[in-house]
Design goal:
The protein is mainly alpha-helical. It is built from 8 helices and 5 strands, in the order βααβββααααβαα. 54% of the residues lie in helices and 10% in strands.
Length: 225
């Protein structure tokens, strides 16, 4: 079953991260290209299904971003808000991706899958042309970002999301009412709590300011990562 998910525009950051996760799962799937080990068969199976799922998710996100999004304005009719993309996602893909993320995290625990853990430890090159800050463990960073991506994609469709989805046009412009603007701010705040963090888990204050400053969220160039 397909459901529409509203995702704030991140100037390509979300799509870049999901692309990195897809490259990782492809690499893991290729590393498992051999005889099936009965002691660890569930991990390669989950990784293979997760690879296909994140591929479908990437296509959906990319298509939504290329299609653009309606221009959103605060109740004053002048303050431009960060747009929301309507992204149709398959529930089966979300479930398969969630299981793959679980397998990634479990591989880093004592007694975890060594093939998966070793690939994660050598995943820093996947972020090119961006580079991870010195001292950041690539294995934990990519698992953390994969988990954040899962949380964003599978966020609960609450009353705020339902209100915004019902009012969001396919194109054009929408001036939010006071109630709709409040729902937008709450929705974006929850998104930021999940996504706008740096490699140490600290929220970037610039991200919160440009999304929420002045009672709304403005379009901006993203800070370098």
């Amino acid at each position: 079953m397909t459901h529409d998910h509203l995702i704030p525009d991140t100037d390509g950051d979300l799509l870049h991260t999901s692309g990195v996760i897809e490259e990782l799962l492809i690499a893991l799937d290729q590393a498992d290209d051999g005889p099936v080990d009965p002691e660890r068969w569930i991990t390669p199976l989950a990784i293979a299904r997760g690879r296909d799922a994140i591929g479908n998710i990437n296509v959906a996100i990319g298509r939504a971003e290329r299609a653009g999004a309606p221009r959103l304005l605060a109740p004053d009719g002048h303050f431009e808000l960060v747009p929301l993309h309507r992204v149709p996602l398959e529930e089966d893909d979300l479930a398969a991706y969630a299981l793959a993320v679980t397998m990634l995290g479990q591989s880093l625990l004592p007694g975890g899958d060594e093939v998966t853990a070793d690939t994660l430890r050598h995943s820093d090159d996947l972020w090119a042309p961006r580079r991870l800050p010195p001292g950041v463990d690539p294995a934990h960073e990519i698992v953390a970002r994969a988990t954040s991506l899962q949380a964003v994609l599978d966020a609960p469709r609450d009353a705020d999301a339902a209100l915004l989805a019902a009012r969001l046009p396919a194109a054009g412009e929408l001036v939010l009412s006071v109630d709709e603007h409040a729902a937008y701010q709450r929705y974006v705040a929850r998104f930021l709590a999940i996504w706008a963090v740096d490699s140490w888990g600290r929220q970037d204050p610039l991200e919160r300011f440009v999304f929420d400053g002045g009672g709304g969220a403005s379009r901006r160039e993203p800070p370098p990562r």
